[in-house]
Specification:
Elements (H helix, E strand, L loop, with lengths): L3 H13 L3 H11 E8 L4 E3 H15 L4 E11 L2 E9 L7 E10 L2 E11 L5
Parallel strand pairs: 1-6
Antiparallel strand pairs: 1-2, 3-4, 4-5, 5-6
Helix pairs in contact: 1-2, 2-3
Length: 121
């Protein structure tokens, strides 16, 4: 069984990848075919829509990077972890916590919560 930190880091690698072809390959590795993502700002189903969501974040926040914040937890097919988003060397602008359901070692559903975000998002 893959540990929670490895799964969370693989997930964040998708969000940090700016090269479209590599990002789509990472999505295929990390997510099931019938996957879904939802947070207070966006929602998507399937690899293509999740790729479009990630690309939109890169367009809106160029140069921003996701980092794992604290420890990731897993029990069975459930995982939770917190993250931060910002530019290198600066205090993170956005922080959040994601809860996911796994299918095997791949993400099936992810529900994202924003713990800290500017009002202009």
């Amino acid at each position: 069984m893959t540990d929670a930190t490895t799964i969370a880091e693989r997930y964040l690698a998708v969000w940090n990848e700016t090269e479209a072809e590599r990002r789509r390959a990472l999505i295929t590795e990390a997510w099931t075919e019938s996957c879904s993502y939802v947070d207070p700002l966006m929602r998507g189903e399937g690899h293509e829509q999740i790729d479009a969501l990630v690309a939109a974040v890169h367009t809106r926040l160029p140069g921003f990077r996701f980092k794992l914040a604290g420890l990731a937890d897993r029990y069975g097919d459930n995982i939770r972890f917190s993250w931060s988003l910002g530019t290198e060397g600066e205090e993170p602008l956005i922080k959040g916590t994601d809860f996911a359901i796994l299918d095997g070692e791949r993400l099936k559903t992810v529900h994202g919560f924003l713990d800290q975000a500017p009002a202009s998002l």
